Amino acid sequence: MAFLYNSTWGLKIAQPNQTLVGYHKHPQRAAWMIITLAQLTLCLLVLSIFWGAKWYITNAKDHFPINITSINGTVLAKPIGTEASIAILRGNQLEVAEFTIVTTDSTSQAVLSFFDDSTITLYSNTTLIIYHSNRPRFNLSPEHDTLEVEIIRGRIRAAPSDQAGNRDFVIKTPQAEARLTPGSYAVEVNNDQTQVTTRLGQAAVIAKATSVTLSEGELSTIGQGKAPTEPSTAEQNLLVNGDFSAELEDTWTQDFFIPENQTDVISARIQAEQVDGRPVLVFSSQGQDNIHTDAAIEQVIDKDVRDFQSLRINADVMLNYQSLPGGGFVGSEFPIRIKLTYKDASGNDREWYHGFYYEPPPDNYILYNQVDNASDNISQNIWYPYESENLLGLLGENKPVYVKSIRIYASGWIYHAMVADVKLLAQD
To answer: Which of 34, 193, 241, 267 has its CA 20 to 30 A from that of 415?
Structure first.
């Protein structure tokens, strides 16, 4: 409205607003504008309801608990954001939700069971975070079932079930991500690298914008900040510097025995040398004969091997001289002998031995021929490529579940022997 001043009466008289006058003059235009605005509002409301419903149908999830079973020792479960961990004793089970940290120590082992019958086995000294265990709430949803965990350290065996239809089974590590189809897989993580092994099925391993596909019997290694290696045979060497190409002191400890009152007449030594173009380790003693000495190297393994299918020891051995024949009077003094110390499934400390000699012993000397203590009579001055049987099968109920260390040593009187390319091979 507009106001005009009337001089006669001294009053301000309201005048019709020109805009309103326009609408009053054109009521149909006003009606159509109102109808159009109402229709637009209705369309927006319908679209909002439609897209909101579509988003909800697409993204609504049913979240399922995870069962943790301790199959050995005490397992710890800690929901993220809480202070206290829950202890799960051997043989007991605990139901947990997503976003839970699960930890095993050197004496414990656990199995995670998911809603679709998939499982993950945690071996000793392993930490894992459960992120997702869910399924789309509606069949119309294009989303997949999701199982997602992250391994911070240690070793797991993942067994995605073949009961599920569309499912994303994702394992993350500090170095990589692995997407698994139904099958069986091993994933091992330390500070420096991740190793993914396919026992059955197919895995896509992704890191640094590079994806590698692993088929049955293949593995890939992912270093920190690096792309996955190309697939290779699923067998790993648990020894470090078994070819003796690096400084011995960095990876092996040396140990010698000489009787205290004989150090001036007999000596024992270990020396890294190049022989026939490759590094070898030479064990030797010099001086007076008929005096016992030992010269040994040892490497700590500290490895849970219960998940492997095979465990074998390979070594190239050459015997140049031994003055004490066979393995000595009680079958324990060989110019080269390999010793593996380990624990069996009952937690018992056990040892496995294999010796090498070229000089046959007299009849009154002992030579053992047992699954855990045997020897080979090999030719003098010729490289002998030794390959053990699968110790996990050979040793039966007494097989290793945890390898503690390996020791290679020369023992006896006067000896000169060489070892090269030693491997402790574990196959998934």
So the answer is: 241
| Dist CA 289 CA 302 (whole Å) | 37
Q: Taking a C-beta distance cutoff of 8 angstroms, is the pair 223, 175 a contact?
A: yes
Based on DSSP, count helices (H) and strands (E) in the chain, helices before strands.
3, 32
So what's the pLDDT on residue 9?
Answer: 46
Q: Where are the alpha helices (DSSP H) in 290-417?
A: 391-394
Contact criterion met (CB below 8 Å) for 326 and 360: yes
| Tally of CB atoms within 10 A around 317 | 24
Cα dihedral value 188, 190, 194, 199, nearest 10? -10
Q: Phi/psi of residue 115, each to 5°? A: -65, -25
Which helix (H) or strand (E) is 34 found in, with range?
helix 27-59
**Furthest CA-CA distance within the chain:** 151
Could you give the percent of the chain with pLDDT greater than 70?
91
pLDDT for the residue numbered 17: 52
Q: Which residue has the higher pLDDT, 56 or 313?
A: 313
